[in-house]
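hey so u asked for the seq, here:
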Amino acid sequence: MPEHEDGYRELRHAIMGYIVSQAIFAVTEAGVPDLLADGPAEAGDLAERAGADADALVRFLRVLVAEGLFTEGPRGTFALTATGAYLRADRPGSLRHLVTLMAGEPYRAWGLAGHSLRTGEPAFDELFGQPMFAWLRAHPAESAAFDTAQAGLVTVRMQPLVERDWRDARTVVDVGGGTGELLRTLLAGNPHLRGVLFDLPHVAGEADVPAERCAVVGGDFFTGVPAGGDVYVLAQILHDWDDHAALRILREVAAAMPPHGTLLVVEQVIPEDDARHPEKILDLHMLVLLGGRERTAGEWRRLFAAGGFALTEIEHGTRSVLLVGKLRGPGRTMSGQQDNGAGN
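ran it, structure tokens below
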């Protein structure tokens, strides 16, 4: 046995980690977590209801029992743990959408991660011959699955926006707002608000928002966004892009926003330390899929400043971070130094 046994075992586990993630995807896709919502079930019955091979199911679950997602009881019965319950579709805060987003084509793209390491370019483009969003437009079924998973992501991460005081706002423009999940929630909770949903025409065409209170506009946020809103929201948009592209988006928002306007960016912030953190892993995922990136607080300040905004607040929610920006006024520099110390 190697001299440093614990480290050796941990490294082996890390090297084979993709097996764990794909085992989670397989049992979740088969509906096993949902079948265990009402309590433990015997493996044979569970396999029959899930359309799985009984022996294979036991072997998959054995791995995930060791990961703390399931428990195994007498006579081959299995149950969900409190952590495993987050794989259920009906669980508040469910991570089922994340399981979907990490499988399929994204998982295949990681097979060419070395391409991203060598070039700094997305491996997805190398494998599929075009950028991910262009590929999705050409594959409607996969695009629909992606949109559904993204809607789940919005539900989980919209908390800082939903809890914000909206009394002084009248019109909110959701830039890259998808089919309208976020705007529907904001409008339902704030009867005085009006909304503008802005996304690519083929996405905006699928929008489901109250027509009497929300306009739907198709377009490209690299060439312009609807003008005149009190609040502009960019929810999980900027991390899809490198700094050059993200700046183009911010500058278009700055050009459309009135002087009193507020920019609300829902993203993540990478801690500036050496500890493990999921956003450090997600940062690599954005590189491999899209050429995008997650950012530290300092990187967000500099990006905001270069885009024409002062970063005035960083509000940490349970699953996301809300970055609040105001248009930069006279006397502010492009270095981002006058931002009230946000994020320190």
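The first strand starts at residue 41 and ends at 42. Confidence is low (pLDDT under 50) at residues 331-344.
lmk if thats what u needed
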